[in-house]
Design a protein that fits this description.
Chain lengths: ~375, ~325
């Protein structure tokens, strides 16, 4: 009788354990596709990090991070921080802090301490009843001489305008001066979202992304160039290519960008730049959803964001220079006359050497489970 | 007989002892039963939700005289064997409206041809003028899914096999439950007067929205902002329809990666925010079918922009040009 009693107790325990285990096992069989991204600083064990030269600044979930020597450091709390950009001398950062109704540009040390506020985009207290009285500032960049802050800006605004045509224009503001001292450098197309992501050029002027409607009524991006405030500027890429997110190479002679050709794809594309026109577009990566390309300061490659898998959050990737600028092949050996050979005879034809096929250089996935903000450009300090 | 041993004692003792075989059998049976019970416990909430959401009975009102214009259904060609048409309905189901009397801000006719793996999505402008309702988005509000189906059938002269209705929160929760979606937003979507009715205090308040351009991973809330905002779009509802189709494609892409273990979370997200006339058995058959549609080029997207429609109709409606619309619809929704 005792044996049966013990068996019953044992079976009851076994059934509880078995049922619970079954439930827990099924709950662990969720696909990785739905797993939330981790914070870059989470101490979870991961494969050895790929090391890139210098320090890259990037954003995830409203926090800024630096990535150097294979390690991430969190610079700010998760409080709407995005779009970091370096001072030309690399001494400090400017970045956007986004709130639900407005965003402002701040100055931060390279370790994330806020040292200044450059814009004041919240509506005045008497106008806060109108959401449209607030303004956005996005994509701040300093001119090479650090005298001008360029950014996309949708102000200034007046409460009660009820303006549905919200478009950003590229503004240039003397560094540290209020927005009233600034000027709009571009004229945005209505109902397109406007002009975004300015890149100040060493020789003056800016390259930026302008959005417009094509002949089929689809909205497309184009790289545009303007050399002074208020000038009409000119398109550098076609509407059909639909390019955006320009990045200037350290030597100033190439532009990296993304082009979508009007589809749900995004190709990493590069083109030469002579100061006023772009060369032919060269597609470098066509099998990933590439975002925010940036050149390595030492010219050794291009970093960018792209999903780590199908329909997954965006990870940091690295494309070595050999992929888009392969080393020149070694010259074929020149035949030399054989000493003592027949005089005036034709030289022997070189034996057809097999042309070595350059190895295919693949992009390197630097992170695996982090999920960076793909609308935030990267900043890279050499 | 040993002293003290009573007759029958051995037999009772034998019955009292459990043979190893019987014990093992009982243990294995207990493990199997309890493991199955654990599995049921995991999936039952999802099954209940699915049961409640699917196989909704639809009363389609009998056609008005215009229904006489229906062309007879052609006999199915081998290519169209098994083809079916679904009406997707999306609603603002916030507190501005009484439950189940909501407008359908999004109406998309979807034709699926399994044999050729072709899908056609046709977005119907919510402000399209139709007899009886004015704006077509009011049909669901007055008569539920049946009225919405009837008005589409009568005006577009198509046969709708089934409908799927999703509420605002449902879309947000579904996208979050599948871990977000990857979308290439074609341009910055900026709106200073976007309805703040999802998580806001008053359904009549507004908020600012800025969904920036380019490839990105969107969570449910930002995906909703992307597909719902229309003030900053010169094409207004038409532009929004294109974005809705983009997001639907992205959801389909992500759904292909899901595992059975994801079903309860997904069902919990959907709970009360999705209704369909498709039965549970057909849903089970359609899931692998949807996964097999892996060529994005085989998915045709149609938005009824001018000259198919033009603005300026009575009461802010959009006037349909049926002479252009009907041949188009007949081509892709035979």
């Amino acid at each position: 009788m005792i044996a049966r009693f013990l068996l019953a107790i044992g079976l009851a325990i076994l059934m509880v354990v078995s049922g619970t285990t079954s439930y827990i096992y099924l709950s662990t069989r969720q696909s990785k596709a739905v797993a939330a991204p981790q914070k870059p600083t989470d101490p979870t064990p991961r494969a050895q990090q790929f090391t890139l030269p210098g320090t890259i600044y990037l954003a995830q979930s409203g926090a800024l991070y630096s990535f150097s020597a294979g390690r991430f450091h969190q610079l700010t709390p998760e409080a709407g921080w995005t779009m970091p950009a370096l001072y030309p001398d690399g001494s400090q950062l400017v970045a956007v802090k986004r709130s639900p109704f407005f965003s402002d540009v701040y100055v931060l040390t390279r370790f994330g301490k806020v040292t200044g506020l450059l814009t004041d985009n919240q509506a005045a207290p008497r106008s806060r009843w109108d959401p449209g009285a607030n303004a956005w500032s996005f994509y701040p960049r300093l001119s090479p001489d650090s005298h001008t802050l360029f950014m996309s800006y949708d102000g200034p605004k007046t409460a009660g305008d009820a303006n549905f045509n919200v478009v950003m224009q590229v503004w240039g503001v003397p560094f540290g001066a209020p927005i009233r001292n600034g000027r709009s450098w571009t004229t945005a197309n209505n109902y397109t979202g406007g002009d975004m992501q300015p890149v100040p050029l060493p020789a003056g002027g800016i390259i930026y992304t302008k959005y417009s409607y094509d002949s089929n009524g689809n909205r497309v991006g184009q790289l545009w160039f303007t050399n002074r405030a208020g000038s009409a500027g000119k398109a550098l890429t076609s509407q059909a290519a639909s390019c955006a997110q320009p990045s200037l190479s350290p030597d100033g002679r190439n532009i990296a960008m993304i082009c979508t050709y009007g589809k749900q794809v995004s190709y990493l594309t590069i083109a030469s730049w002579n100061g006023s026109t772009l060369g032919a577009l060269q597609t470098v990566i066509s099998d990933q959803l590439v975002a925010q390309p940036i050149w390595a300061p030492d010219g050794s490659g291009i970093a960018y964001l792209a999903p780590g898998g199908p329909a997954a959050p965006f990870q940091l990737w690295w494309l070595p220079r050999a992929r888009y600028a392969p080393p020149a092949p070694s010259p074929l050996p020149t035949p030399t006359p054989t000493p003592g050979g027949p005089h005036n005879a034709p030289l022997p034809a070189p034996s057809p050497l097999p042309v070595p096929t350059p190895p295919v250089v693949k992009p390197v996935q630097v992170t695996t489970n982090l999920g960076f903000d793909a609308t935030s450009p990267l900043a890279w300090l050499g | 007989m040993p002293l003290g041993f009573k007759p029958g004692h051995r037999a009772r003792a034998s019955r009292g002892r459990l043979s190893p075989f019987r014990t093992l059998s009982i243990v294995l049976l207990a493990i199997a039963l309890s493991a199955t019970a654990g599995g049921f416990a995991y999936f039952i909430p999802a099954a209940v939700t699915a049961w409640n959401a699917t196989a909704q009975v639809v009363q389609v009102p009998s056609p008005s005289p215009t229904g006489l214009l229906f062309s007879p259904s052609p006999s199915p060609s081998p290519q169209s064997e098994g083809a079916f048409t679904v009406l997707l309905l999306g609603s603002d189901d916030d507190s501005k409206f009484f439950s189940d009397h909501v407008l359908t801000q999004s109406m998309i006719l979807v034709r699926v041809v399994p044999a050729t793996k072709e899908v056609t999505m046709l977005s119907i402008p919510r402000d399209l003028y139709v007899q009886g309702y004015g704006k077509i988005d009011g049909a669901y509000s007055y008569g539920g899914a049946g009225a919405a189906i009837a008005v589409v059938q009568q005006n577009f002269r198509v046969h709708v096999d089934d409908y799927i209705w999703v509420g605002l929160l449902g879309l947000i929760k579904v996208i979050d439950a599948i871990g977000g979606i990857d979308v290439v937003t074609t341009n910055p979507v900026l709106d200073d007067y976007y309805p703040s009715d999802v998580y806001g205090g008053s359904p009549y308040e507004t908020q600012r929205v800025a969904v920036l351009a380019g490839p990105q991973h969107l969570d449910g809330l930002h995906a909703m902002e992307y597909v719902r905002s229309r003030h900053g779009d010169l094409q207004s509802d038409f532009g929004r329809s294109k974005r809705q189709q983009q997001v639907l494609m992205a959801i389909r892409q992500k759904a292909k990666l899901l595992a059975p273990g994801d079903i309860p979370a997904l069902a919990a997200a959907i709970g009360g925010e999705l209704k369909t006339s498709i039965g549970l058995d057909r849903v089970a058959r359609l899931i692998p079918l949807a996964a097999s549609f892996d060529n994005p080029d085989s998915i045709r997207q149609i938005v009824l922009v001018p000259p198919y429609t033009h603005g300026g109709g009575p009461g802010g409606t959009i006037t349909p040009n049926w002479n252009l619309i009907l041949p188009l619809v007949h081509q892709y929704f035979p």
